[in-house]
Amino acid sequence: MRPFLTRLFTDREIIHLPGGAIGQAFIGRMIAWKRTREVQENYAKIGGGSPIVRWTTLQGRGIVERLRERGHDVEFAIAMRYWNPSTEEALAELERAGVGRLLALTLYPHYSMATTGSSAGELSRVMKRRGVKLPLDRIDVWYDHPGYLDALALRAKEALARFAPDSPPTILVSAHGLPKHFIEAGDPYCEHIRITMEGVLARLPKVPHALGYQSRVGPVEWIGPSTDEVIRSLARDGIKDVLVLPISFVSDHIETLYEIDILYADQARALGITNFRRVESLNDFPPFLDALAGLVEPKLT
To answer: Which stretch of DSSP H or E encloses residue 66?
Structure first.
């Protein structure tokens, strides 16, 4: 855990800590050291590790299978920003496969410099360092892609069907948080989240909804309201049925399996929200893989 957290908190593309690059290196390592035990305990509660590589592998395999069925000769490799397999490893794998060009597909539907922007920057740096001359194309945003919105709506409809018809829930749309300075610098993330939320809700029966941002870390100001603040507000209003719809995550990992399913669920029940559930993640949901394949295919001609 500690090397992963160190890479995350010492990266000024993600979080600007005081003291410039030198201060970031020192403070980031201190935060990583202090958080390691807590994060290890959280991962232990979801089985001792993250399933994100497994789900991402299935997503990549699903895209490739669909494209090969349509006559495209494609390979895939996974590049994670702060852990393994790294961008370096992904490029080496694709070079060994003898590919003739590259297409970088972000699995962040909504653009931010902290996510897709940072990953694209890392890809450029590694390609330059390795001397990779292959043509590169990128898919950097797809927050409003109809197939993606349809897949999210289908997952939400499955979850809504588990509530009593006479007791519809309030949908709590939960997106990953972002340090506020990104938005102040013109980052489009919040606007992308809004468009996705409205696109999904338009495909669902009309029910009350609210938006919150989760996963705040580090001593910087983050966008809000936070998901836990929204939960407290819903509880004060006497809401008993809540369905959480995570819209900035395309697979299960610590933010869904621990933060929503355990941390927020315990908070909600303690506040009197008796029926607190989550929409199942997209993972390898066939309509979602169909959408990703449809997103990639036009780039292959």
So the answer is: helix 52-69
